Amino acid sequence: MTNTAISPKVSGATLAGAVTALLVWVAGLLGLEVPGEAAVAVTTLITFTVGYFVPDPARIDTDTLNEDYPR
Questions:
Q1: Rounded to two decimals, what is the model's pTM?
Q2: How many distinct structural domains can be found in the chain?
Q3: pLDDT value for 55
């Protein structure tokens, strides 16, 4: 059976993209006009940052596991 669980790395990056889109929308409601290109750039940067720093459980080196990480 295939594991279809979503990786925390993917979930975090997706959530970052959605939150950034909402922030741009709220900024528009407050009268701050954000060009589309800037909104896309901010979304890309935040999504990359979150994706980079969230660990991928599939890539944990099993040789370095200790008591803090049960097998």
A1: 0.63
A2: 1
A3: 80
